[in-house]
C-alpha cells in the first residue's frame, strides 16, 4: 500500500508538450516555463527504404476480376492504396465479357477505342470460339478505325487460320497480300470484290499464282455492275507468270488506276500492251522502277497489335527452336559449319524476269489533259492506214474464215487491233 501511495504521489517526470500558434513547444518542468527551441519531430516511416511489395492475383478465386485498388508510395516511403474509378471498373468488366455484348453502334469513338485496347490486352480476339464474334462488334460499329491498312505480306498462315477474322475488317484502304500464293480460286480474292471493301485504293497481289481466269473473276463486278474495286488507284500484279496479254483486257475497267505493275508476268508482246494501256487507261510506261511499289506499307489501326498476336501464336506453334539449337550445338561440337542454301529459282520465273524485268505504269497529270487529243491522233492514223492498204479479197477471207471457224465480224475485230 505504501508503495502504491509513493508511486501515486511521485510526480511524472516525462516531458509535457504544448501547441501554440501552430507550433509545438516542450514545457520545461525544472524551470516551469516553455522551451525556446521549436521541436522538429522525425517523420515516421512504416517500412524501410528497401521494402518492396509484390501483388499476387489469383485468377481462379476472383473469377477473372482484376484488382480494384491501385498501390503507390508516398514521399516518406509509406505504402498508399486508392480505389480505381468507377469508369475503369466498368470498362474492365465489359472487356472481360465483350463476347456477350449485342452491339456497340452509337457508342463514342473514344469509349470504343479504350474498350478495344482493354479487350486486346486480355487477348479476347485470339480465342478460337469467341474471338471472331468479339471482333465483329467493333468492325460493325467503327469500320476503318479498327483497321485501315492491313499488311499480310508472306503471312499465308494467318490467312489460312484467321480468314474469317480478316474478312470481318471493313472499309480498308490498303491491302497487301504479296507472296501468299493464294491462287485464282481463293476465298479471300472473292471477298475483295464485295462492297465491304469498295473503299480499297491500293491492292498488292505480287506473287500469288494468279492467271487470266483470276483476273476475270476479280474484275467481274467492276466490268458488269460497275461496283467493287472501282476506286482502285494502285494495283500490283507482278511475279504472276499466269497473266498473259489476254488478261490485260480485264484491267481496262479500272478507270481510276494511277499505278500498275505487271513485271514478271507472262506478257509476250510488250509494245502492244504498253500502247494499249496508254490509249485506253492513260497510263505511261516507266523506264525506272517506281517507289510506289516498294512494299513499305504497315498495318495501321486499333487492331495492329491484334494481328501481331495472331502472328506470334502461329510462330509458337511451328517454330522448332529447340531442335535448331540442338542441331547447331552438335555442328559446333564436331566443327561443322552451317551450309548456306541458295534459293533455287525455276527457269520459268527466270525467263519471265529477263523478258519482263520492269513493266510498271503511272499516270501523268499532263497526259490526262492531252488524252483526248492522243486518241484522235491514233484514230486518224488508223484511218490513213486503212485507206493506204488495199482491202483483202473477200474470197481469200471467206476461205480463212471457213478454215478457222471465224466469222467476218471476228476478222474485222481482229483487224481493228
Automatic annotation (TrEMBL):
Protein name as it appears in the record: Leucine-rich repeat-containing protein 42
Region (Disordered): 379-399
Classification via SUPFAM superfamilies: RNI-like
Keyword Repeat tagged: yes
Repeat among keywords: yes
InterPro entries: Leu-rich_rpt (IPR001611), LRR_dom_sf (IPR032675), LRRC42 (IPR039631)
Family, per entry: Belongs to the LRRC42 family.
Keyword field: Leucine-rich repeat, Repeat
Origin species: Gekko japonicus
